[in-house]
Amino acid sequence: MSTFDWFSHLGIDDSYTTDIVEVSFKDGASKDFYHAPPALGVFTGDYVAVETKNGYNVGCITLSGELVLLQMKKKNVKQAKVTESVLRKANTRDLEKMHEARQLEYPALVKSRAIARTNHVNMKVTDVEYQGDCRKATIYYTSDERVDFRELVRQFSHQLRVKIEMRQIGPRQESGRLGGIGSCGRELCCSTWLSDFQSVNTAAARYQNIAINQGKLSGQCGRLKCCLNYELDTYMEALEAFPKKADKLRTEAGLGILIKTDIFKGLMYYTYRENRGLLFPIPVDKVHEILALNREDKKPADLQTFQAVTEVKDDFEYEDVTGAVELPAEKRRRKGKTKGRGRKRTSTASRESKDTTPQPRAEGKSKSRNKRSNNRRRRAKKKPGGDA
């Protein structure tokens, strides 16, 4: 909820054109307008103590001068409704009291949620904000139905030992207070700079040719994203050049049906009802010509004569780098069927690689082997019971 002062670098001292300043509390979670007399000498960025109905609160001045009047006009706040004023510039004790109040908020949030669950109340406690002097706590909650919290307020005040104010907020305000990271990768707009929430419907997505996907179009609050309205005016202005009733075009070749529209290129894609395989991109001015002929009960020959001329892009020529770049040869490893066999093969291979010298063959051993084989053959030829 921070605000940038666009006049700061110009050296224009417009702080006293009005004595109304905007003060934010709890890192911009809530803001309000107060009178700041020039005698106090407070400026943008100073911490001040402001008066409330129950004691005082401590906040930071975020806007002063002409920017406050523009912000009040944007929020539809009249100067006559601003009745409270700034008491003084916050001293050391005020800042210490404010930090003590911030330390009490998380335990109070846990207690309030436990009390609401114990009483079986259909509500979600979103946030707890303590006043700067720790005399009052505001509990923000969301609920889809009306909640009778008279008994809850008694239990809250008994447990927290402060005055309790219950304030119901919507899902968008809840996301703004809690904060987070959106699908774009940046902080949520509602928790940084967005000050008012406008209604968003699916028509904004249709005008921008966005597929109606509830999961992708919904934000963290469960509602449609606020950023769908950011570029809607540009699309609406571009659509003014397109014809209103141009879903069908009559030609001699057949009836043309509108398939899609490219808003920024100014093209409307048509196809024949009888032959859906053909697609003709036709500029907007040509579509107006065809519609004018149809209103005069005339039909052009076909849609192909009106389609836009597509630019032929030059083909990129790639340099032949065969032989210029040499890649290292891949080393193939023999994989065994089992771990044991693989280890055995690698061990034998390592032995062979280590002992590469050829060893002489023993002649005596080879002669004895030949004699044994000859004796076996002779025994096999002899018949059992025959003469030796």
From TrEMBL:
GO terms for cellular component: cytoplasm. InterPro entries: PSP1-like (IPR047767), PSP1_C (IPR007557). Residues 327-388 are annotated as: Disordered. It comes from the Bacteria. Residues 84-169 form the PSP1 C-terminal domain. Residues 331-346, 367-388 have a biased composition (Basic residues). PROSITE patterns: PSP1_C. This is Cell fate regulator YaaT (PSP1 superfamily).
